[in-house]
Design brief:
7 helices; 49% helix; 189 residues; alpha+beta; Muramoyl-pentapeptide Carboxypeptidase, domain 2; binds zinc ion
């Protein structure tokens, strides 16, 4: 399983990690996390503590059954809960247990800040992500996301003097982004 380090110190699935960092940018600083991706052994430890009613142990699913083991769940620090209540859903971070204010899971299809996905997910992108090609797919995804990010930055920065140059550059970036999406789509066929 491929995981990516995030700025709070934990690790997440690469797409969840990208979303987490986008959310931190909107928050204005790193959002504190208490628990991110867990190994089977870590989940087992938490589960055993929970079923034994040990002090300090919250509800935990049996090992092998938690989204924390798949890299898509985060337990957030309390100082960010209020902000997450207002903005977390828009970034695709959804509360799945009404009793756990801290626990959210990343649902890509609900992420309004994800630029590329809609045409791709229909072609099985999410399914393909789970297969052995996911590392290659992730590289392309990242390139494409970066190209679109540069394009957006350029539109934001464009002024009269730069406009002609920017138009040329933006065409190149659009081509680059389309090539990336094309490669991803091809893999999902
Ligand atoms: Zn959790």
């Amino acid at each position: 399983m491929i995981l990516e380090q995030i700025s709070s110190g934990g690790k997440l699935n690469p797409l969840a990690a990208l979303s987490f960092e986008r959310m931190c940018a909107a928050y204005g600083k790193t959002i504190p996390t208490v628990s991110t991706t867990r190994t089977f052994a870590e989940q087992e430890y938490l589960y055993r503590g929970y079923v034994a009613h040990k002090v300090g142990f919250n509800f935990a699913l049996a090992p092998g059954r938690s989204v924390h083991e798949q890299g898509f769940a985060v337990d957030f620090g309390e100082s960010a809960w209020k902000w997450l209540t207002d903005h977390g859903n828009d970034f695709g971070w959804i509360r799945t247990n009404p009793n756990e204010m801290w626990h959210r899971e990343y649902k890509q299809l609900k992420d309004l800040h994800y630029h590329i996905l809609p045409p791709i997910e229909e072609k099985g992108f999410l399914v393909a992500l789970n297969d052995y090609k996911q590392d290659q797919m992730y590289d392309w995804m990242k390139q494409t996301t970066e190209a679109i990010g540069r394009l957006e930055a350029m539109y934001g920065a464009a002024d009269g003097r730069n406009r002609v140059k920017s138009a040329d550059q933006s065409r190149d970036l659009i081509r680059e982004a389309h090539a990336g999406v094309g490669r991803i789509e091809k893999m999902c066929d």
